[in-house]
Amino acid sequence: MYFIHKFRILNFLMSIFFAFLSAGNLMSATLSGRVTATHNISPLGVTVSIPALHRFTETDSLGMFTLLNLPAGVYAVEFSSIALNRLVRTAALTDTETTLNVELSPSVLELPGISVTSTPQPTDALSSPQSVTVVSKRNLDRLRGESVMSTIKDLPGVATYSTGSSIVKPVIRGLSSQRVLVVSDGIRQEGQQWGDEHGPEIDALDVNSIEVVRGPSSVLYGSDALGGVINIINNKIPSVDEGAVVLGGNLLLNGFSGNKQSAGALSLSGANGQVGYRASVSLRDAGNITTPARELFNSAEEEMNGSGAIGLQGDWGSLSVGYIRFDQKLQIHEDPNEEPDATPNQHVEHDRAHLHTNILLNGLRVEAKAGWQRNQRREFEEAGGREPALNLNLETNTLDLEGHHRPFGKFVGTVGISLMDQTNRTLAEEKLIPGFDLANTSGFLFEQWIDDTFTASAGIRYDTRTIDVLETSEINVTEQRLEYDAVTGSIGIVWRLIEPLALVANAGRGWRSPTPFELFVDGVHEGTVRYEIGDITLNPEESFNVDLALRAASTRFSAEISIFRNRIAEYIFLSPTGETDTASGLSVYEHRQADATLVGGELSAQFALTNWLVLSGGFDMVRGTNTEIDRSLPLLPANRVKAGIKFLTTKLGGLYNPYFSVQLNSVARQDRVDEFETPSAGYELITVAGGTELMFGGNRITIDVGIENLFNVSYRDHLYRYKEYAQSPGMNVFAKVSVPFELIK
To answer: Global pTM?
Structure first.
């Protein structure tokens, strides 16, 4: 009866999906209008895009635009220009022509763009039922860091758990690792996320934008999204009008003094009629990290990455296929008081092939996303070692099908099916975890009711997961099958009280199945310098989250304040046993469970005092408690206060959009710690930065320079894994250059 019940739920969702495919009449809509601008600025060259359909155009000399052969539906339409503010409007397209006229005005603020992560249908960030931050375009050039996750370390509610400068794991509202899901263009990024010293295998130089959703997102993404979702959106394949030929590219150069790092990426892209293509290659080389006290021996890294993609686009929709290769070699700094000459290192390779389709069929938009990934992690005990101490090979196949139905009155929605299977093998002599085969099947339904001033959304999802564990005698694991399933749901509202103020409320249930590492690990984990033990009796984590937010956005002022409470039943954590492993001499830790509660909030704001002066500030905090013993949860970020000032103008001599900024980050003392943690002192860091854009050959080159930790402050970040025996990095001078170019036009 148990299996019959599971398949009945999935069959019900699949029947809805195929009913959507067969329903409705084929409707072809047209969106047209005019873009005007204040202050006598020409609207020429404004890009009008509908991200959900991968369609865009530019305005003509009169500000007119037209997009033909669109499927009926409700879509977020974005208007963007270099000289004007970004504007997002919602358009309800029918089988007749729809007109959308907008007026743009100059703005010195980085206003929110469109999010494609928080709901199945892309929407503007202000209308998302969850708290979401989008980093894109020029702002991404300024923030791009030494790893993809260091780029978002200062966003509201986001911190990082780092090992040196290259292994950086995101922390959202106090949750990390298996509780934060990283996706790349909507496809789950699957590596060995369970390790403290395992970072996401994503090239920071091949990213177009980053979206961060705070709060459980299990309805859309399934297991592991208890804390939130980070969607990495890679650079897009270009498309042009029929008959045109374009070949261009971009050169990125980054340099950082803190570890003598140099990085660069070259991309080429073009299109011929309906066919577009793109390729890129990037290199990164870094030496040892420098702190105010000393250089950290054996902390260098190097990367060599590449990608390629080709796409086809027409009135019927779009199709693209691509391949990404990530290859990283990095060194792990050990405690010099114990092993001053230790040279452990890792070699991580991640290959990813993907296929995306977006088909317009019978008044519907049908999306299919298929992915294959291979993650190979080899860890060596010493430099020059030929046989890895740990060798893990993980292969993952995913398939996501989504049908977005035409509007029924004011209702729009999506039904989806997700399939995933994994094969993990332990190839080295050391068997830290057993081999396993994992299969996950799920379906979801998500509906939105959209009005001019009020939007309501609700979703439900069912997941079933099986793990077939292979016999691994080295760690006393027998062959067995584990089964988990869960029903999750969410509801949310966005109420536009008055322009430009919106009240947002969201409640959601999330879940996470225990990983094979948490269930079966039994041995020395070199990365954490502990002897760790799993627990086969662990149950899935289940969370219930409620958050409230107040948002405002105009050309002069933007802000968001949010509060949340996330209750997690059966929270899984590592705890010391008080024993020592006799063979290794390391402390023994075991996985345990307890109910936990996390509460906190974020505040972020920016205000343009004048056309040349912008003030910004923010605050975030989180409290996490093991409610069974009234003790703090481990690895929680400290409270932070941020304040900044930016001077800017549109033109200064031959410089376009020059700016100079000063940012203060004040981090409080963290003394709310678990029993195996040590408290961390508070500190203040100052970052100064400046940049500009230069016109050369009709292309706009961007340059950004600055200094992090301006006064070389000695500090130890609480989430820095070296903090027990090393300071956090000292002064870091950086320079970033982006050079676009055209070869054929």
So the answer is: 0.90
